[in-house]
Amino acid sequence: MKNSSENRRQELEKYFDAKGPFALFRVAQMKRAWQQSNRRELTWWENTYIPSLFTGIWLTSKHFFYNFTFHILHLFGLYKNVKAAVTFEYPEKPRPLAARSRTRHRLTKREDGSPRCVACMMCETVCPARCIEITAAEHPDPHIEKYPAEFILDLGKCVYCGFCVEVCPEDAIRMDTGKLDIAEYSRASMIYNKKRLMNE
Ligand code: SF4
Ligand code: SF4
Questions:
Q1: Is the beta carbon of 152 within 6 A of some atom in ligand 1?
Q2: Which residues contact residue 133 at a Cβ distance below 8 angstroms, ignoring those fewer than 6 apart?
Q3: 106-199 maps to CATH 3.30.70.3270
């Protein structure tokens, strides 16, 4: 082990360029190799893993009794300002999200149920992941110029930056469904069309 670490260190030193773009990374690698070569041998007592076992039990018990005590005290209205760990029974009870969390998108509707989107293409243009694809069509209402004949959003590519929501002039797209656990069996199922974005 010692020899291989030493060899590794020498090998790294050979390629080390103090002015190179990865100099800091190389220093970290060399430091790790040096630490490996100087790692102390475990004693026979440590090799039994008994000290590690008791350390683990002590750590788990410490957290258990800490949380248990404060949850009991909270029941009596005491020490409410001290936080104790809470286990969420996901997926039956999902963790509450912050009010401003960006979650899965939806297309908002007008009173007649049609999409508010006017197919201005702002969201498609601003999207850094290029995951929005809109097919615009002439709207039958002369007061509305266009509407999206199709609105495709590939959630497999989306980075949840929220730019599409911010740029929309019609408040037609929102990320407030509260849905984050979007799991599918294929990439194709991650592609949402207008119908899914309006109704799911
Ligand atoms: S959240 Fe960002 S990446 Fe996702 S669709 Fe909107 S603009 Fe594109
Ligand atoms: S920015 Fe809004 S109105 Fe414009 S195409 Fe996107 S969702 Fe529709």
A1: no
A2: 124, 150, 151, 152, 153, 154
A3: yes
